[in-house]
C-alpha cells in the first residue's frame, strides 16, 4: 500500500475543508480546517522531493484551475488532478503534467453511470490515465456513490460487480468516505474492508485518518491492498499528525 498525499484547492487557495459541508450556495461557506497563502506548488515540490507519487490535486469548485496547473508544473507526472474534469478538458490537464485525471460528476450524472461519457473519456486520455472517484455516503447497510462535490447521491450502490465493471475502463479508483472526510474522527473500517475485497484495480481510501494507529487500521482492514490519503490531520495542514512520520510509515509499508 502507498501513502498518497493531497492538495485540496478552494477559491484558488490550498485548504482543508469538511467535505460534507460543501454546497453550491456561495452564501454558505464550507467548514474550513485549514487555509494557507502558500502556493500549491509549495506542496507539490514537497511531495516531489520526498518521492511521493500518485497524490491528488482536487479542485473544489470553480476558480482553482490556475492553482491546479501550478502544482502540476511543479511536479510533472507525479500528481493526479480532479474536480469538474470533462472529456473536453481532460487532455489539457494531462498536457499540463497530470499523470491521471480524476472524474466523478461527468460520469455519474443524472443519478446514474453515463457509460457513453466514460467511453469518450477513455478514448480521449486512455484507460491508463483515468481515475474514477467513487466517493460515497453510507445508507443503512450500503454505500451510495455521491457526485457534485459529494452533495448529490446517485442511484449507484457500491458493489463488487459495479467495481469490476468500472475497472475495465479506468486505471484506479479514489474513494472518499464522505461522512468522515475532513472530520479527523477515525476511518470507516467497513468501507476499507469492502474496497479490499471488491476492487480488482488500485484503490485509494480517504477520510477520517487522524493518527498512525488509524493508518494501521487501513492497512489491516485493507489487507495491505488499499492505498491511503491523509489531509487535515497532518501538521503541514494545521493538524497534529507528523507529516514526516506518515511519510516514513508509508515507505515502510509500501
Describe the structure.
Helix content is 30%, strand content 27%. The protein is globular and about 40 Å long. The strands form three sheets. An eleven-stranded mixed sheet has the order 1-16-15-14-10-7-6-5-2-3-4. Strands 11-12-13 form a three-stranded antiparallel sheet, with no helix packed on it. The chain is an alpha/beta fold and 254 residues long. It has helices spanning 40-49, 65-74, 90-95, 115-125, 160-167, 189-198, 212-221, 243-253; strands at residues 3-4, 6-10, 13-17, 32-36, 55-59, 79-82, 100-103, 108-109, 112-113, 130-133, 136-139, 142-147, 152-157, 172-176, 202-206, 226-229. The longest helix has 11 residues, at 115-125. The model has no long low-confidence stretch (mean pLDDT 91).
Based on DSSP secondary structure assignment, what is the total number of beta strands? 16
Mean pLDDT: 91
Distance separating the two termini: 5 Å
What is the SS-derived class?
Answer: alpha/beta
Taking the sheet with the most strands, its summary is:
11 strands, mixed
Shape type:
globular
String of helices and strands: EEEEHEHEHEEEHEEEEHEHEHEH
Strand order in the largest sheet: 1-16-15-14-10-7-6-5-2-3-4
Beta-strand percentage range? 25-35%
**Alpha-carbon Rg, integer:** 16 Å
Helix percentage range: 25-40%
Q: Work out the helix count.
A: 8
Uncertain regions spanning at least 5 consecutive residues:
none
Amino acid at each position: 500500500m502507498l501513502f498518497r498525499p493531497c492538495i485540496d484547492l478552494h477559491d484558488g487557495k490550498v485548504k482543508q475543508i469538511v467535505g460534507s459541508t460543501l454546497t453550491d450556495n456561495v452564501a454558505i461557506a464550507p467548514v474550513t480546517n485549514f487555509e494557507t497563502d502558500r502556493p500549491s506548488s509549495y506542496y507539490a515540490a514537497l511531495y516531489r522531493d520526498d518521492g511521493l507519487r500518485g497524490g491528488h490535486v482536487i479542485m473544489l469548485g470553480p476558480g482553482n484551475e490556475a492553482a491546479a496547473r501550478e502544482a502540476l508544473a511543479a511536479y510533472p507526472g507525479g500528481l493526479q488532478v480532479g474536480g469538474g474534469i470533462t472529456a473536453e478538458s481532460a487532455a489539457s490537464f494531462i498536457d499540463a503534467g497530470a499523470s491521471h485525471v480524476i472524474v466523478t460528476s461527468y460520469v455519474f450524472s443524472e443519478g446514474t453511470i453515463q457509460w457513453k461519457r466514460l467511453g469518450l473519456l477513455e478514448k480521449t486520455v486512455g484507460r491508463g490515465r483515468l481515475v474514477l472517484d467513487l466517493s460515497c455516503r453510507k445508507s443503512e447497510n450500503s454505500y451510495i456513490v455521491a457526485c457534485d462535490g459529494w452533495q448529490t447521491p446517485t442511484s449507484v450502490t457500491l458493489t463488487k460487480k459495479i467495481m469490476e465493471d468500472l475497472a475495465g475502463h479506468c486505471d484506479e479508483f479514489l474513494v472518499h468516505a464522505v461522512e468522515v472526510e475532513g472530520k479527523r474522527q477515525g476511518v470507516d473500517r467497513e468501507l476499507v474492508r469492502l474496497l479490499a475485497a471488491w476492487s480488482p484495480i488500485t484503490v485509494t481510501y480517504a477520510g477520517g485518518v487522524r493518527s498512525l494507529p488509524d493508518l494501521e487500521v487501513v492497512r489491516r482492514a485493507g489487507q495491505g491492498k488499499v492505498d491511503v490519503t491523509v489531509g487535515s490531520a497532518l501538521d503541514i495542514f494545521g493538524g497534529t499528525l507528523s507529516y514526516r512520520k506518515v511519510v516514513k510509515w508509508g515507505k515502510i509499508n509500501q
